[in-house]
Amino acid sequence: MRTVLVGELPPEFHDLLERRRALGQDLFDEVWEGEYHVAPAPHGLHGRVEIQLACILRPRADLAGLQGSGPCNIGTPDDYRVPDQAYFADQAPRTFNASAEIVVEIVSPGDESREKFGFYFRVGVKEILIVDPDTRSIEWYARADSGFRLVEGSDLLSTSTAELTKAIHWPQPE
Fold first, then answer.
1. Can you give the three-state secondary structure of 52-98, one letter per residue?
2. CB of 33 closer than 8 Å to CB of 49
């Protein structure tokens, strides 16, 4: 389902956003070139896979000199995306990170993970990892001349999609 409000936003909408902020429900919301995207908390399978990925990728990131993060803002206050994980060469924590070496998107029903590729390319992300708990599949993308291309694994983390797929204990779908 997609809802788009055209024109001046009604006060009730601003109240909704403020209520979401106060309750901490806006952690995954994004702003796409000034357009606010309200995102729900992730699906339960998502969290189980996310924790495993962090444990599996951390030693590889450490060897590569990259600092891992959970959900974070990539971009600027008026144009940002929130990947499920990101890995940075720059160790300084920020509210808004200009880019990342690697972003990880774990697919939840109805999400917009693949629609973020153009943005991630524009801001200089080097690799994108897409993980789908429902299909138990992993796709790794590397930066190419004019976008991202599907590859067999990460040059930055020295791992393959096959190795990573095998290392995850995939939860049973509901």
1. HHHHHHHHHHHHHCCEEECCCEEEECCEEECCCEEEECCCCCCCEEC
2. no
pTM of structure: 0.87
Cα(44)–Cα(171) distance, integer angstroms: 10
Whether the CB-CB separation of 62 and 36 falls below 8 Å is answered with no
Phi-psi region of 55 (alpha: psi -120 to 50; beta: other; left: phi over 0): alpha
Q: Please tell me the distance from the alpha carbon of residue 37 to that of residue 3, in angstroms, as a whole number.
A: 10
Q: In a structure prediction context, what are the per-residue pLDDT tens digits for the chain, which is 174 residues long? A: 556 565 677 788 778 878 877 877 677 777 777 777 777 767 677 889 999 999 999 999 999 999 999 999 999 999 999 999 999 998 787 899 999 999 999 998 778 899 999 999 999 999 999 999 989 999 999 999 999 999 999 999 999 999 999 999 998 876
The residue length of the chain stands at 174
